[in-house]
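Q: What would this complex look like in 3D?
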Amino acid sequence: MNAVLPVARDYGALKRAMLELLEEARQEPERRRAERMAQYAENAEQMLAGMVPKRTLADGYFARVYYLLELESVMQLGVKFSAAEMDVSEMHGLAALAAARRQFDVLHPPCKRCGVRLENEGQTQCQDCFTVEAAANR
Amino acid sequence: MNAESTTTTIENAGQGITATSSNELLPLDVAERVVALKMRDGGGIRRHVFRRLERVDVDAFFSATLVATQRTGQITENEIDIGSAELKLYDRAIVRVTGYELEGGGDLMQLPNWKDRVPGAHRIRAVDLLVKVMKGTGGQLINADYDIVSLDAIWTEGAAGSMSWFKGLLHRFTPPTIVHWKRFNSFKTRSVPVGGSRTQKTLYPKLDGILGEFYGDLIQSVEGYSFQGAPLADRATICAQMDRFHKIFAVAALFDKSELDSSDDEEAE
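A: Here is my prediction, written as structure tokens for the whole assembly.
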């Protein structure tokens, strides 16, 4: 039987948890819009069920990612920790967040006009900007 | 010492108790602590007498607790089991009980397995009261140099059938540093997924060890406690004699930012 890896040292799963959080954040405006629309819809429950973020990992991974994000922001504010105060799991955890962001950039590049995250890597601009550009070119 | 006292009735978990509050000091070194359970419908009082709790008792208590989350679909449920830990603590620290009668007459204490024959609900309720400590109701106190945590706690039976209810027990701490914050949060998130990352169940670490350690690092003074008949004054005695549940709860309150979070939510709405 394989030993279970503690959350803090399961860097592959931490990266995946970060990607899922980034995906949730990307879909947040759409989810809020669906929530508003669902207030007037008969199939409200069905609509909202389709918009619930789909987390595939145990909660402990997300709690650890939140901690690492907080640690990262503290360090970005200029707080310095000595080598003795940092541990290897934090160092690798922060690297896992950075790797997740790089992958997210590839999967969902920003719209070249407004910067909003696109649905997939084949797109170059969002639907709103496409519509505006098409109207301007008419 | 203020002789004036108020009486509050607590109805909880099927056992009515009357708690008395006064400005007396909480005696940390009382040899035995008595938890009085008042039975409903004039059923009398059952007394549970405990010896003083030692660090090993509290360590055993926390090691028997379970804090986990379980996600089913997209719904997360907290799973907190302290019942087993309470039974374990009861078994370790109970000295005797009074008020329980055997079928056919006689005292329950005559049985060699008397601990096991005390109803489980009574054992759990007695330990629940024995370790009862909560954030003080007096509001946030501000000091120029220290972070202050105010606690309320039940300690032992005062007047017949009435539990002593100590309020406004103050713990003054040197404010935690960013390194304390980092250590606490890093430790708190060192959880273990049960059966693997995708099994949706997370076991969380026990925080009593790190919180107890921080208490020793940060405590400066306390108010409301006595040891050997005198107010608890110097740091070394505080560290050595303070009840470990109070230590853990006080430091946990120091790091608790739930009030801050809820005010953020209100602002966001």
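A: To summarize the key features: Chain A has five helices and no strands. The mean pLDDT of chain A is 89.
Q: Very helpful, thank you.
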